[in-house]
Write a structure and sequence with these properties.
Elements (H helix, E strand, L loop, with lengths): L1 H24 L2 E4 L3 E4 L5 H24 L7 H22 L8 H16 L2 H7 L1
Antiparallel strand pairs: 1-2
Length: about 130
């Protein structure tokens, strides 16, 4: 169940990302979920959240490499770590930036996705479906 739900969510998010990249090339910016703007900057707190989550993910995998070199990871495990990092960084950046409470739907959505990915990427669940 968790694995199927994770596949559906990842598929929808992947499609959203692909559409966003193509739209950006065409000069239209789309930021989550469906805020479409032409030639306007994405709010700083969203950019800062993504930047810090990339840095936190890099730090996680850097330390993981140093201490657990031979352990392989699946793509869903990478997504799990990145979405968790984005959730944590998003919450703290939104809080420190004093963002309106209605903007926290983004963090809430990421939190729900991170829970689903956490259960879908566990070894026990993965072994049942292989």
């Amino acid at each position: 169940m968790a694995r199927t739900l994770a596949k559906i969510i990842i598929g929808i998010l992947s499609l959203w990302v692909l559409v966003s990249v193509i739209a950006e090339i065409m000069g239209v910016t789309i930021f989550f979920p469906f805020n479409v703007v032409e030639k306007q900057e994405i709010p700083y707190y969203r950019v800062a959240s993504v930047r810090l989550s990339v840095l936190l993910t890099f730090a996680y995998f850097g330390f993981r490499y140093l201490f657990f070199q031979s352990e392989k990871l699946f793509p869903i495990q990478f997504l799990d770590v990145y979405i968790k990092s984005l959730t944590i960084c998003g919450f703290f950046v939104f809080y420190t930036s004093q963002v309106e409470i209605r903007e926290y739907y983004f963090v809430l959505f990421l939190f729900i996705v991170s829970i689903i990915l956490h259960f879908a990427s566990r070894n026990k669940i993965r072994s049942y479906f292989n």
